[in-house]
Amino acid sequence: MQLSFLRPLYDRPGPWCSVYMDASRDTQDARAQVDLRWRALKGDLLGQGADPVTVEAVEEVVRRHQPMPGDYGIAVFASRGRVALTEYLSAPPLRDLASWSALPHTMPLVAQRGEQVAWVRVLADRTGADAMAVSAGGVPRRAQVQGGQNRQLRRVQPGGWSQSRYQRAAMEAWHQNAGDAAAATADLAERVGADVVVVAGDVRATGMIAAQLPARW
C-alpha cells in the first residue's frame, strides 16, 4: 500500500490532534448537525488535554472546508497549532472520533482508503488512443492522442507492382501512430506513478504500442 500521503504527519513532532468526523451536508439541518458533532469532539479533545491553539486550528478546517455532495467524512490532523493533513473520506466514519496523543491516529484513515493502485488504461486503434490514468490518491487524468499519420491506414490489395508499397506505407503509419500513443501513455504513467498499464483495443495497435513503451512499463 502507498502510504507516502502520511509523510507530513511524521516529519514533525507531536502531540497530535486526530479527528474523524461525519461532515455530510445533504439534509436541511445538516449544518447544525455538523456544528453539534464538532462541539462534542472539541470538548473531548480539551478534556484529553489538547492545547486550545491546536484545537482551534482543527476547528477552522471543520467549519471552513469545501463541502462535498452526498454523505462523506473528513479526517484532520494537527499539532502545535497547525494542521498538517486534511483528507476527505468517501463515506462518513462509523463513529466520530477525537484523539490527543503522541502520534497521529491514522489507522481509521488507512483502513478506509484500502489498497489503492495507480493505473493507466489505454483504448487504442490504428489512428491513436484514448488514455485515462488514476493516481493512488484517486486523481484522474486523461489524454487523447491523434496519431500524426492519418493517410494510408488500410493495407489495400490493388494488385500489381504497387501492392507492397501500399502495404509498407500502411504499416509505417500504424507504427508511427502507435509510437505517439506509447509516448503519451508513458508520460501519464510517470505522472501518476502507475503500478500497472492496461492497453486494449485494436489487436495490431495494442501490440505496436506495447512494443514501444519503455522497458519499465
Quick overview of this protein structure:
The protein is an alpha+beta fold and 217 residues long. It folds into two domains: 4-113, Translation, Eukaryotic Peptide Chain Release Factor Subunit 1, Chain A (2-Layer Sandwich); 119-212. The chain has helices at 7-10, 30-47, 52-64, 107-113, 163-192, 203-212, and strands at 16-22, 73-79, 82-89, 97-101, 119-125, 128-134, 140-146, 196-201.
Structural description of this entry:
With 217 residues, the chain is α+β, with helices and mostly antiparallel strands. The chain folds into 2 domains: 4-113, Translation, Eukaryotic Peptide Chain Release Factor Subunit 1, Chain A, CATH 3.30.960; 119-212. It is built from 6 helices and 8 strands; from the N terminus they run αβααβββαβββαβα. The protein has a 4-stranded antiparallel sheet with strand order 3-2-1-4, sandwiched between helices. Strands 7-6-5-8 form a 4-stranded mixed sheet. The longest helix has 30 residues, at 163-192. The radius of gyration is 26 Å and the shape is elongated.
